[in-house]
Amino acid sequence: MPKILVVDDEPNIIELTKLYLEREGYEVEGVSSGQEALARRSAFRPDLIILDLMLPDIDGFEVCREIRAKSDIPILMLTARKEDVDKIVGLELGADDYFTKPFNPRELVARIKAILRRYQAGQKVSDTINIGNLRLDLACHEVTVSGKPVKLRTKEFALLCTFVQNLGVVFSRDKLLDLVWGYDYYGETRTVDVHINHLREKMTGSSVSIETLRGAGYKMIVNEDDK
């Protein structure tokens, strides 16, 4: 039974979310502050966290940052604010999706199911790929560059696998959303850009690189020195 941790300082939001998620068979716990969220994450060990940005002690951005330093657990950010900058910052900190209040509880449940499907699917592959100094262990979800481990989040790893298994193929943002996030993803194509920028930074010095083709999308190439 998947476990969901709801972090929100509005009791009615917690109760509404619990009602709909428990109907779907999820085990749900709710907390109302950032410190409680960090404490319960270790004790409750949820499979996904619904995280409000506006909390009474530390904000959701800081909670997300601290969780991401230790775990790649899926995080769905929840907020009443609609500014694009909040969405971008949340995604850059490692959130998997972003949902704005007020919301339809059924759509929230659908998003959670989609996130968990994609997260679990990313853990079920099995193979090893070597390109120059780059090594991907798909079964163990591990990446090394020149023998040094590279820590990637689930979506970053899935993006890398997609590119590596299709060297030279150009992928549009919409196609990458379909392949990596799933056809039922409700977010924006900006998500792709954010994750690719993170991947580029983490893969510095590797035998492959991601090229941007203006108006077309992205493709992965093998660097000249490694051909």
Biggest sheet, in brief? 5 strands, parallel
**Top-tier CATH class of the largest domain:** Alpha Beta
Spans with pLDDT under 50 lasting ≥5 residues?
A: none
Q: Per DSSP, what share of the residues sits in E-state strands of 2 or more residues?
A: 15-25%
- Report the end-to-end length measured between terminal Cα atoms: 47 Å
Question: Secondary-structure blueprint of this entry?
Answer:
Elements: E1 3-7, H1 11-23, E2 27-31, H2 34-44, E3 48-52, H3 60-68, E4 75-79, H4 84-93, E5 97-100, H5 105-121, E6 128-131, E7 134-137, E8 142-145, E9 148-150, H6 154-164, H7 173-181, H8 190-202, E10 208-213, E11 217-222
How does this model look, in words?
By secondary structure, the chain is an alpha/beta fold. The protein has two domains: 3-121, 3-Layer(aba) Sandwich (Rossmann fold); 148-226, Arc Repressor Mutant, subunit A. Helices cover 41% and strands 22% of the residues. It contains eight helices and eleven strands. The chain has helices at 11-23, 34-44, 60-68, 84-93, 105-121, 154-164, 173-181, 190-202; strands at residues 3-7, 27-31, 48-52, 75-79, 97-100, 128-131, 134-137, 142-145, 148-150, 208-213, 217-222. The chain has a five-stranded parallel sheet, with helices on both faces. A four-stranded antiparallel sheet has the order 6-7-8-9, with helices on one face. It has a two-stranded antiparallel sheet with strand order 10-11. Strand 7 and strand 8 (142-145) form a beta hairpin. The chain is elongated, with a radius of gyration of 18 Å. It starts with a strand and ends in a 5-residue tail after the last strand. The model has no long low-confidence stretch (mean pLDDT 85).
